[in-house]
Specification:
Layout lengths: L3 E5 L3 H12 L5 E6 L14 H4 L11 H4 L2 E4 L1 E7 L4 E6 L7 E4 L2 E4 L3 E3 L15 H10 L5 E5 L3 H12 L3 E6 L11 H4 L3 H6 L3 E4 L3 E5 L2 E4 L4 E3 L2 E4 L3 E3 L17 E2 L11 E3 L4 E5 L4 E3 L4 H15 L11 E6 L2 E7 L6 E5 L7 E7 L2 E8 L2 H13 L5 H4 L13
Length: 403
């Protein structure tokens, strides 16, 4: 019988796990452990409304007393012992006693940590937590010279906000085009014009070699004057604390869950940014660092922790608001997939559709929400399409279904 459940990680995935457990009828002891001292909050607004100063916080509106959830905040998870079914925690500030928590079921939801550059100074900013967003917001004063390292999703969103706040912004990207980790060059290249249109200098093919007082040093020997430096070059699963537990990790350091989100340890599940899972749909193991995964995975993990047998094989989805555009992506493409354009990528709204044979496997939509909604359903159902009609932006994707 399941009487004690511990959820480690109080971000979106951890919070949704708690809600799903109670929603699934679980009435036993439920503890939520969070490394930060503040109540659980949502992360997407950090690079948008919180950074702009339009919102002071993004806390979840949850009555924890009514849910009968014990919040253990400001506590770092130190180790897990699957044999004894215990988790060892300590105060995040290094003071106070350690606390050992017993569990019948354990859910790992510790998220990911930002990647830093070698020699990165303490004055450089990262953007992952509420405190990060507040510190960066205070630094983004009108006229400030801001250098953002990385033209990924975070870099583009931060550059958008910094320009809105009146800063002079330069984005440095080691790869040749924006969004190199997410999109092929032919799709990322049209986005270069967005930076110029917003008054942002984008320097691609420019690696950072180091830092100096008030400057970022580039590998080509040039220097960029900087009052504010933000590093946004990706994130790694927060799983170092699992060393010695015997819980299997994949080659990237994520918890290697199965298609039920079970880990290699009995009674232990993993969700969100810290986990990877096998996808039959895409015939590979996926690690998805996006909000939608943190929302959907907990439903499956919670159901299975309570005795269910549900599979998890979603179509990944994410969105980004940058330079006045809504960018949405659903699916998973890979080299060799056929690319169809729907509309002019230099125009105000367009989409890119990836096909494997006649079947859509991924869709990127820029200010075309209907394409995203209809294309996502085609991807989910593996519905073949007619290429000619699918490439015509005037034809709704739901009417491009092949014979």
């Amino acid at each position: 019988m399941v009487r004690r459940i511990v959820v480690v990680g109080a971000g979106t995935a951890g919070m949704q796990t708690v809600l799903a457990l109670r929603g699934g009828g679980y009435q036993g002891e439920l503890r939520l452990v969070g490394a930060e001292p503040r109540e659980p909050y949502d992360r997407p607004p950090l690079s948008k409304d919180v950074l702009l100063g339009k919102a002071e916080h993004s806390r979840f509106e949850v009555d924890y007393a009514e849910l009968d959830v014990e919040l253990l905040l400001g506590r770092r998870a130190l180790a897990v012992d699957p044999a004894r079914r215990t988790v060892r925690t300590a105060p995040g500030d290094g003071t106070g006693p350690e606390l050992e928590l017993e569990y019948d079921r354990l859910v790992l939801a510790t998220g990911a940590r930002p990647v830093s550059l070698p020699g990165q100074p303490a004055s450089a900013h990262l953007l992952r937590t509420h405190d990060d967003a507040v510190a960066l917001r205070a630094a983004l004063r009108p006229g400030a010279r801001v250098v953002i390292v990385g033209a990924g999703w975070i870099g583009a969103e931060a550059a958008t906000v910094a320009r809105q706040l009146g800063c002079a912004v330069t984005v440095v990207e080691a790869a040749a085009t924006p969004l190199p980790g997410a999109l092929p060059p032919e799709v990322g290249e049209p986005m270069r014009a967005w930076y110029a249109g917003a008054g942002v200098e984008l320097r691609t093919g420019s690696g950072v070699s180091g830092f100096a007082a008030g400057a970022v040093l580039l590998a080509d020997g040039s220097e960029l004057a900087a009052d504010v430096v933000l590093v946004g070059i990706g994130a790694r699963p927060e799983t170092g604390w699992l060393a010695g537990s015997g819980i299997a990790l994949d080659e990237r350091g994520a918890v290697a869950a199965d298609d039920r989100l079970r880990t290699s340890a009995d009674g232990v599940f993993a969700v969100g940014d810290c986990a990877s899972f096998p996808s039959d749909r895409y015939r590979t193991r996926l690690t998805v660092h996006h909000w939608d995964n943190a929302m959907r995975g907990p439903e499956v993990a919670a159901a299975n922790a309570l005795g269910g047998d549900e599979r998890y094989d979603p179509v990944p989805y994410f969105w980004s608001e940058q330079f006045g555009r809504m960018v949405q992506y659903a699916g998973q493409h890979r080299p060799g997939d056929e690319l169809l354009w729907r509309g002019d990528p230099g125009g105000p709204g367009w989409s890119a559709l990836w096909l494997r044979g006649d079947v859509p496997v991924a869709l990127l939509a820029v200010d075309r929400p209907r394409d995203l909604a209809q294309g996502r359903r085609l991807v989910e159902r593996a519905t073949p399409v007619d290429r000619v009609r699918a490439a015509d932006p005037a034809v709704p994707l739901k009417e491009a279904v092949g014979g």
